[in-house]
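Step 1: inspect the first sequence and its tokens.
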Amino acid sequence: MDIFKKLYEVGVLREDGEIVRCFEEYQDDLVLDDNLKKILVQEEGEFWEVYSEEERGELLFRLFRLVVLGGECCQFEDNFHNYVTVTKALYKDLISPQLVDEKVVIRSVAAKIHLKTANGRSVPEDPQNPLNILLLVVNPHTRTVHTLLHQRGVGDM
């Protein structure tokens, strides 16, 4: 969870975890009304360089991004700790840590995939949307696979 300490250092969060608000901006179909959403979405924004591409590619960061940005029917939070609680629980459900030489080691392997059915349907639908994601998390030790599908959009509302 150390990856999120940077959010305090750059002023995206206050000491108590409250998310710093800003004037609304729109990017695609997202309303960016706080600095946390901006750091996750705006590639040309002032906060983008806080995280490297390698950090942004980590499973924990990807899950956090999905939880924060949510979907059209999500209730957004004013406090960062609510997002971290959900992200941590989701992460723990997907991965399989092991104790090796008194160190916690993650042996699970996560893969983002895109499927196309025989009749031409895509899973996830609209794979060009970065919030539409299908993840497979494989644990080679227990030979189990966990799946996570996040599909932005609930149809015509």
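Step 2: inspect the second sequence and its tokens, then contrast the two.
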Amino acid sequence: MRSDRHVSDDRASMVSMETGASAGTPGPTELVLGLRRLSFAYQDLIEIPYDVILEQRDTLEVLDLSYNLLEESPALLGELEKLATLILDCNNYNSHVKFPYLPSITTMCINKNRISNLPIFVEEVRRKFPNIRILSMMNNEAAPSYFNGGSLTQYIDYRQYVISQIPTLEVLDDTEVQRAERLQAKKTYRRHGVRGASMRRKEFRH
């Protein structure tokens, strides 16, 4: 029996509700509206359960879809106009994932997926999440670090590229973006110009 078309008791217990309503604990088949947080983590999902998620379109701020088997582009999440935090850790998303336009998003975690082409992915994030402040994409091929055998030089280049392309970022992975780092990132890619930046971006392509 598929687990992505119903809300189980365990799943209901992971949902944080801030509705101001005074009511008892809902049963497993009772739909609760007005949720700000919703988690579908560790459900082995291969499809996003839009039927449940979109019922919370007027209030949902945090959506956790981590530790599943998802790879489809989350297009219908564009209906969640208040969504601020999207957690997609440990799925099967690749560099060509297409996000909906969501100016409400300020935080996205997409650690440990299958992102290998940094320029393509970063451009998608920059265009679709214009107000993003926190991005975490550790343990992806496109994000070299000590997690996946990347060198210090590769790690620095990776951070400078992402920071230069997404000027709204305040935190990248687990590290705050410092003013000096932001200035250096801008200087690096301005100095190299279009041709130089293109050549450097090839280092991230596979």
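Step 3: confirm your contrast with the notes below.
The beta strands are 37-39, 62-64, 85-87, 107-109, 134-136, 171-172, 175-176. Confidence is low (pLDDT under 50) at residues 1-29, 193-206.
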